[in-house]
Amino acid sequence: MRIFLGLLFAFFLVGCGDDTKRDGAVALHWDRDMCDRCVMVLSDRKNALQLRDPQTNKLYKFDDIGCLALWFKEENISYKDSVKIWTTDVVTGEWIDAREAFYTTQNVTPMGFGFSAHKSKENLDGEEIISYEEVLERIR
After folding, report:
1. Helix axis angle, 132-139 to 65-74, nearest 10°
2. ∠ at Cα 77 (72, 59), nearest 5°?
3. Nearest alpha-carbon partner for 72 in 119, 115, 62, 112
């Protein structure tokens, strides 16, 4: 019986794994996790973002790049220019580097900012394409 309880406890610990040591994007709990700025539930799998505070290792999640940009400003985040940020590719939902993504400007997004990320410029003919830095400039 002790062996069974020991194994059960071990499986419980593995199942409740701590994501604070991860270096990459983590799986979010869609329709349960909330945006760290506007506190809306994260349900749009095509416009979400996440980053990890380099000092505390705390994960921050956002439903729209506009919330991320305003949070940087409102909270006076000192590491905003150096922290790794992941966003979802609007087509595939894959987590990609937000700074390397290509953004289109006329999209329906959770908070209405209209900027969606793409892993590549492929198939973006006729759309305005801007960089991460330009997105932040337009939101300020």
Report:
1. 60
2. 85
3. 62
Q: Cβ(37)–Cβ(67) under 8 Å?
A: yes
Q: Answer for the pair 118, 102: CB distance below 8 angstroms, yes or no.
A: yes
How far the first Cα of the chain sits from its last, in Å, is 61
Count CB neighbours of 45 within 10 A.
Answer: 13
pLDDT of 18: 44
Task: Look at the pTM and tell me if it is higher than 0.85.
Answer: no
Instruction: Strands of 2-107 (E only): list them.
Output: 49-52, 59-62, 85-88, 95-97, 102-104
Q: What is the pLDDT of residues 68-91, one digit of tens each?
A: 999 999 999 999 999 999 999 999
Nearest to 34 by CA among 72, 65, 59, 61: 61
Among residues 34, 112, 37, the alpha carbon closest in space to that of 68 is found at: 37
